[in-house]
Amino acid sequence: MRWVNREPDRKQRLALGAVPILLLVIVYLFAAYARHAVNPVDKILPLPSGMATALWSQMTKTDVLSGTVVFWADTLASLQRLGLGLSIATLMALLVGLVLGALPPVRATFGPLVTGIAVIPPIALLPILFVALGLGETAKVALIVIGIAPVMIRDVAGHVGTLPREMLAKAQTLGAGSWQILIRVALPQAMPRLILALRLALGPAWVFLISAEAIASDVGLGYRIFLVRRYLAMDVIIPYVAWIALLAIAMDWGLNTLSRKAFPWAHGEKH
Amino acid sequence: MSALLSLRNVWVEYGDRIVLEKVDLDVAQGSFVSVVGPSGAGKSTFLRVVLGQEVPSQGSITLNGEPLARECGPDRGVVFQRYSVFPHLTVLQNTMFGLECTKAPLLARLFGSARKAAEAEAIAMLQSVGLGDSLYLYPSQMSGGMQQRLAIAQALIMRPRILLLDEPFGALDPGIRADMHVLIRKLWQDFGLTIIMVTHDIKEAFSLGTRVLALDKRRHDPHAPHRYGATAVYDLELRKDEPAPEPETEAA
């Protein structure tokens, strides 16, 4: 049978998907044990037991300086920044993207501006944000918004712009005006695309969050990773990175599930 | 015979390319006009002009004596070959869309007793096109024929002065197409519709229409084929004593 026609079933997919991950883990364990055989206090490739101990102490021990349990404080701070940034960017993408895509005069007026902002590397704006907004939470949230909103806006606007002309003509023959087409035709059809844009923006959003936290912060997952890097504390960094990956996967899965539940017509399934 | 729709000296040009030239036409109330012609002869352009999706470069179009608005409006219903129904709405919601837009300018949604009334009207319309059992399906769950039935119901609930059909049955298989012919003929009679249908199926054009228009270029310049546009080269009234095809004279 040709490879293009081999469709693994659910069990096979799980097994196949686990193979490379397991291989990586095994390679890491080999390397880690090899290093520890030479030097029992090696910090570069910590053993699972070392990582578990370090993580457990981060998760349970109250920090004397801040009076908080750092792991949960970091997680809460980062998720709050990320959540705020993602919410603002999503709202902007929906409102701006919708009118930009559906109303040609608005597109002509603001399209070039959005395109212009979208091509600026957001990190290059970080100094401006710090100068303008200070080193507090606002600048970090603003970096995430500036980093992902233009791309999301362009994606939603592009999607709304490619709605078939026939469909818009049909809506008008049914008595719909611009406003009604916006809220009853363009908006609902933009929603699944908005969620997809948000899912794709999760990666960049994490990048901007960690960058902002690494540069100026006193709490947060990115801050912690860059802080303990000074002590080569790989036993903290690796679990933190794994935790970030887990959070990102959970968000992506949640958004995908939401889209399938809320907009079954967009997923080509037998609802 | 009173003309419902009149086109006078209508031209459509894109740059130096002429698509339609000097189209003069009167469509009577209650007629079923089939428009045929070779590919690229401007059949769809003609329909879009009547629909208001396309503005002619010169000439005038009147509907019931009034100049036609330069955009689509609820006085003209349309069914395209594709993309005629809203994929995010169920059958019932699709059919109610027109009523909701007309009666609720701000929210485009109806509530309470107004909603009940609109639902009842939509269900009655859906029953007349044979979709009474599929109220809560999404278009993607239906066959092409059912989607076109829905598109027709959706358009008819607005009671348009003219129903425009752009190759509505072109993508359907022959059995379904025959069913649709019976349906559209019945709706045309029951609702007293005026229909303009573009089709590439000559047989369909003659079996359904009371009048067949053939659009084609009157002249062809091999060095500049784009400089001559299409117009109605044949205009046949059917259902008369002598339906012998005769070329329309140059003066129109």
Keywords for this entry:
heterodimer, A: 271 residues, mainly alpha, MetI-like fold, 2 domains, B: 252 residues, alpha/beta, Rossmann fold, 6-stranded mixed sheet, 4-stranded antiparallel sheet, 6 helices, globular, disordered C terminus
Structural write-up:
The complex is a heterodimer of chains A (271) and B (252). By secondary structure, chain A is mainly alpha-helical. Chain A folds into two domains: 3-38; 52-267, MetI-like (MetI-like fold, Orthogonal Bundle), CATH 1.10.3720.10. In chain A, 78% of the residues lie in helices and 0% in strands. In chain B, strands 6-7-8-3-9-10 form a six-stranded mixed beta sheet, sandwiched between helices. The longest helix of chain B is centred in the last third of the chain and has 18 residues, at 174-191. The interface between A and B is medium-sized, with 27 and 37 residues.
Terminal CA distance of chain B: 17 Å
Please tally the β strands of chain A and state the result: 0
* Average predicted confidence as pLDDT of chain B: 85
CATH class of the largest domain in chain A: Mainly Alpha
Query: Could you name the ranges of chain B where pLDDT drops below 50 across 5 or more consecutive residues?
Result: 240-252
Percent in strands of chain B: 25-35%
Spatial order of the strands forming the largest sheet of chain B = 6-7-8-3-9-10
Largest interface: A-B, 27 and 37 residues
Figure out the total of helices of chain A: 10
Biggest sheet features of chain B: 6 strands, mixed
Write the CATH fold name of the domain at 1-71 and 193-252 in chain B. Rossmann fold
Tell me the name of the CATH class of the domain at 1-71 and 193-252 in chain B: Alpha Beta
- Beta-strand portion of chain A reads under 5%
Distance between the termini of chain A: 32 Å
E-strand count of chain B: 10
Oligomer designation? heterodimer
